[in-house]
Amino acid sequence: AQSVTQPDIHITVSEGASLELRCNYSYGATPYLFWYVQSPGQGLQLLLKYFSGDTLVQGIKGFEAEFKRSQSSFNLRKPSVHWSDAAEYFCAVGARDNNDMRFGAGTRLTVKP
Amino acid sequence: NAGVTQTPKFQVLKTGQSMTLQCAQDMNHEYMSWYRQDPGMGLRLIHYSVGAGITDQGEVPNGYNVSRSTTEDFPLRLLSAAPSQTSVYFCASRVANYGYTFGSGTRLTVV
Description:
The complex is a heterodimer.
Chain A: E1 3-5, E2 10-14, E3 19-21, E4 24-26, E5 32-38, E6 44-50, E7 56-58, E8 64-68, E9 73-78, E10 87-94, E11 101-103, E12 107-112
Parallel strand pairs in A: 2-12
Antiparallel strand pairs in A: 1-4, 3-9, 5-6, 5-10, 7-8, 8-9, 10-11, 10-12
Chain B: E1 4-7, E2 10-13, E3 19-25, E4 31-38, E5 42-51, E6 54-57, E7 64-66, E8 76-78, E9 87-94, E10 101-102, E11 106-110
Parallel strand pairs in B: 2-11
Antiparallel strand pairs in B: 1-3, 3-8, 4-5, 4-9, 5-6, 7-8, 9-10, 9-11
């Protein structure tokens, strides 16, 4: 089955600084890839997704992610972080032919004023 | 449009008790799943469904049953609760080629 690794458990950035959250996946074929965000006590919200085509995908709240097949990565980026971006971020990989979607352990983002 | 509705929001069970976590969606989504979320482990897939009458096991299915008699409903049954099942449970639904819509979660404590 597919799997996801998020190497960074916790990241702290200053407000206005750029952000990159790492995600590596394992899957034998071309995957479906997702990033979700979770605020404390809430469910998860979809930020962006990759299915095929352009490897740089744009999402909500100014986030983007780049699919790199050669590195099995799907890193999330934002040019300038806002205090409201503090949350936990989850990368997920899905199979094309079923509903088996696996999540990484998450990266908690802290934003310093 | 309510999205994905989970009930109850909080529940305390005694070891050995059984219960059903309810999940309903009003978006006519084909795919539905149950996840549990534990600190440091992300979300782990319990069971999933690709349509009414079709279910399959995920990563951590032991101790849980599901059924999908209608498109809208996907209840999760705990057969005999154990302290290891203390967790936050999320139900989610989606259509093909799109991401999940998540419910707000059920926080379950087994004592």
